[in-house]
């Protein structure tokens, strides 16, 4: 085996630039989230000319040589692509939990039920804190370390969260020894998600409001530069999240699926998918883009309402109107006023995207159906799968097309949802695929009877 080419000392660079097109730039170590001229969100812009000094073949070899193996921190799925993420950051400031490198599974039994034959699930929830939020949080907390090492007085890092962001933030901050503060909508996140920041020592504040209400408070809180904002309006996180797309392509031998399906709430991740693929194409690692399907819960569907399922190319000038999100089992995407809507629309446009929605019944059944084929899906992944099922049912996604569904969290973080489904106690829902435990007497005969009831009698002989 030949060793991957050694890293050269940072000829590469990235800066903040106004995402709305103003001529504003700032270093990534500035405490800034919006363009001071137009209040638009900032994007991280890479010096593509510098990155082009390496060929696509060289980049692939470098990334493949590091994947899950490289010397610390390059074995991380995120830091193995450091030149494309945060090239100037000192290695000593990287706070990594070996995130990324998650499995990409082919799910043939599930695909057959949908009349498809090439469906994959990118298991982004198989990671340190059990959701794909680790991918972005490692970048953000590493940047905080770098700022603190240069003497910036950051007292704490704060976020509003529907659960997974707070879990990731508090874990990475605890690893780095940085104080964290998390604002959660009381009673609207799972028990497992709530206990994660508690265990990691964050200051956990439960607010009697919804996510959008928490978001308003945390934005006001972070107006003083000593409280650093960790929500996904902070573009550093998008840089890490985009590695999910790069890994998908890498794990498929640097090829491109026909479709990528992702659930959307605040819509930072839908935009990150676009960013990963467009960057790979710009640097010649791939020669085309996949189509993007963003899936929303019907109870929190401002993007769907703005597009009504039509392709983004068919609906120019879409404006996403804020709504009050209703309660959904997919609690991590119960968001009515998505902060990254503009960015997501640009990604949908670039990737010839579509938006679909899923009702509570549809998401619960899709999750259960996938579980019956061996997965263990969270409700948000259920939303993505339900959207896929609808497009497959309408023939918009066809047999022969390769589909990758991004699974965003580990099902074990949402055991209440699973238990409720199989007990048949989810309010207002049916459980057609329910498989409750059978209580039997502690005897051989009773167990044999139960097996016979499910699988028939044993053949005699
Ligand atoms: C955050 C999250 C999402 C949605 O990502 P956005 O960038 O907010 O659209 C989906 N699923 C899970 C499990 C999440 O934690």
Written description of the protein model:
The protein is of the alpha/beta class. Helix content is 36%, strand content 13%. A six-stranded mixed β-sheet has the order 4-5-13-10-11-12, sandwiched between helices. A four-stranded parallel β-sheet has the order 8-7-6-9. It is globular and about 75 Å long. Pyridoxal-5'-phosphate is lined by residues 131, 133, 164, 232, 263-270, 332-333, 378, 380, 408-409. Pyridoxal-5'-phosphate binds at residues 131, 133, 164, 232, 263-270, 332-333, 378, 380, 408-409.
Features:
461 residues; alpha/beta; 6-stranded mixed β-sheet; 4-stranded parallel β-sheet; 16 helices; 13 strands; binds pyridoxal-5'-phosphate
Low-pLDDT ranges: none
Return Rg in Å: 22 Å
Residues in helix, %: 25-40%
Q: Which ligands occur here?
A: pyridoxal-5'-phosphate
Number of strands: 13
Topology as a string of helices (H) and strands (E):
EEEHHEHEHEHEHEHEHHEHEHHEHHEHH
The percent range for strand residues is: 5-15%
Tell me the major beta sheet: 6 strands, mixed
Question: Class by helix and strand content?
Answer: alpha/beta
Return the average pLDDT rounded to an integer.
94
The side-by-side strand order for the widest beta sheet comes to: 4-5-13-10-11-12
The coarse overall form would be globular
Number of helices: 16
Give the terminus-to-terminus CA distance: 56 Å
Provide a compact summary of the structure:
With 461 residues, the protein is of the alpha/beta class. Helices cover 36% and strands 13% of the residues.
């Amino acid at each position: 085996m030949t060793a991957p080419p050694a890293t050269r000392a940072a000829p590469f660079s990235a800066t903040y630039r106004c995402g709305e097109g103003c001529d504003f730039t700032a270093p990534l170590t500035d405490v800034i989230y919006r363009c001071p001229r137009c209040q638009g969100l900032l994007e991280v812009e890479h010096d593509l000319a510098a990155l082009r000094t390496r060929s696509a073949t060289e980049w692939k070899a470098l990334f493949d040589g590091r994947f899950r193996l490289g010397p610390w921190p390059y074995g991380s799925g995120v830091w193995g692509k450091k030149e494309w993420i945060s090239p100037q950051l000192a290695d000593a400031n990287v706070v990594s939990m070996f995130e990324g490198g998650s499995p990409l599974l082919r799910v043939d039994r599930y695909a057959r039920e949908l009349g498809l034959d090439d469906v994959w699930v990118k298991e982004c929830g198989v990671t340190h804190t059990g959701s794909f939020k680790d991918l972005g949080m490692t970048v953000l907390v590493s940047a905080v370390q770098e700022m603190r090492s240069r003497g910036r007085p950051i007292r704490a890092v704060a976020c509003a969260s529907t659960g997974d962001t707070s879990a990731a933030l508090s874990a990475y901050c605890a690893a780095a020894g940085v104080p964290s503060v998390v604002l959660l909508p009381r009673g609207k996140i799972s028990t497992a998600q709530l206990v994660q920041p508690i265990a990691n020592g964050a200051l956990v504040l439960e607010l009697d409001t919804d996510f959008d209400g928490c978001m308003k408070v945390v934005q006001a809180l972070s107006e003083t530069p000593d409280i650093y904002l960790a929500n996904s309006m902070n573009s550093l996180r998008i840089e890490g999240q985009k590695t999910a797309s790069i890994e998908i392509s890498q794990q498929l031998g640097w090829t491109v699926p026909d479709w990528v399906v992702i659930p959307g709430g605040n819509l930072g991740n839908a935009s990150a998918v676009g960013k990963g693929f467009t960057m790979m194409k710009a640097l010649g690692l791939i020669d085309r883009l996949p189509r993007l399907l963003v899936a929303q819960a019907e109870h929190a569907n401002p993007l769907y309402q703005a597009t009504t399922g039509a392709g983004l190319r068919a609906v120019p000038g879409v404006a996403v109107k804020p709504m009050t999100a209703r309660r959904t089992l997919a609690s991590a995407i119960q968001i009515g006023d998505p902060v990254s809507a503009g960015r997501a629309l640009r990604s949908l446009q670039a990737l010839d995207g579509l938006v679909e929605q899923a009702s509570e019944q549809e998401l619960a059944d899709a999750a259960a159906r996938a579980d019956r084929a061996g997965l263990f899906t969270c409700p948000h992944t259920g939303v993505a799968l339900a959207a896929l099922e609808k497009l497959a049912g309408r023939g918009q996604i066809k047999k022969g097309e390769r589909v990758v569904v991004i699974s965003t969290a580990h099902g074990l973080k949402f055991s209440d949802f699973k238990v409720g489904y199989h007990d048949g106690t989810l309010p207002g829902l049916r459980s057609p695929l329910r498989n409750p435990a059978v209580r039997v007497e502690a005897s051989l005969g009773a167990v044999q009877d139960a097996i016979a009831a499910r699988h028939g009698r044993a053949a005699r002989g």
